[in-house]
Amino acid sequence: MKKWLKISVTCFLAAILIITLAACNNEKVQKVTVAEVTHSIFYAPQYVALEKGFFEEEGLDVELTLTAGGDKVMTALLSDGADIGLVGSETSIYVAAQGSSDPVINFAQLTQTDGTFLVSREKIDNFSWDQLKGSTFLGQRKGGMPQMVGEFVLKKHGIDPHADLELIQNIDFANITSAFASGTGDFVQLFEPQASVFEQEGRGHIVASFGEESGHVPYTSFMAKESYMDENKEVIEKFTRAIYKAQQWVEEHSAKEVAEAIQPQFEDTDLELIEMVVERYKGQGSFSTDPILEEDEWNNLQDIMDEAGELPERINHSDLVNTEIAESVMK
């Protein structure tokens, strides 16, 4: 009887210990909401961090919410509807120029080139940029990075986007693909995988990359309000460390391995297509290999905005970019 009682007490204490440890572990898990401007293979390292458990290893429970449009991501951040935003860095400049008392700070860069491609309705064997003159060009939303980079590249090739062609930029981001499919435009500026899907279906042909033409720019970054970063320094550090692990993983693995890792995020997309898109982005260096947003990239961003007539004012790199966290996790 005494032996049975001793065993029962031991089992009871063990159960209490397990429950206590589980409770402690649960307390350590921090919920983080991320508002992403679009759900795209262009953001592969973020999905690798999710699918490979890198956020989990850091004690973070990351929830992604699709918040289409840079202005909507900013609204979500400023209203505390999201903790972190994944969006173009230009949005933080727009907010700062409006005199925000709680600026949005870029703390980890995810992509370092434009992610769009020029798609022609007709097959062109020997494409040259001057072939856009006199055409109808279905561009992206005015004031957004895709459109500003698009105009920057056109001007680089001696094309005035507002005089040498018919520029359409009043169609919502979500409807650009369907607009081109229905017959609008001779050329269109598209993200992947839409560009490759059109090519596979014979409805369009990729003739150039805006990313290759525009150079390095902080195209998409993780950012948060300054107040949130001050109050959650450890969370931001853990988040950045997970992203850095994912960036290194993407850099060190093949396009096929990356595609296989992120396929659960794109269940309706064929694995071979995902691999082709990843290979294309890897080939032109679109994925940042570390989270540091360099000053020269920041200045290139503002030059592109200025060229498009969308830069409200020049803002110093140190005012809206925090590289200390990224530098710390990389040591």
Automatic annotation (TrEMBL):
Protein's UniProt keywords contain Phosphoprotein: no
Protein name, per record: ABC transporter substrate-binding protein
InterPro entries: SsuA/THI5
Family according to the record: Belongs to the bacterial solute-binding protein SsuA/TauA family.
Keywords, alphabetical: Signal
Gene Ontology cellular component annotations, sorted alphabetically: periplasmic space
Domain of life: Bacteria
SUPFAM superfamilies in alphabetical order: Periplasmic binding protein-like II
Originating species: Bacillus yapensis
Annotated ranges, domain SsuA/THI5-like: 44-253
Signal peptide: 1-22
Location of the protein in the cell: Periplasm
Gene3D superfamilies assigned to the protein according to its UniProt record, in alphabetical order: Periplasmic binding protein-like II (3.40.190.10)
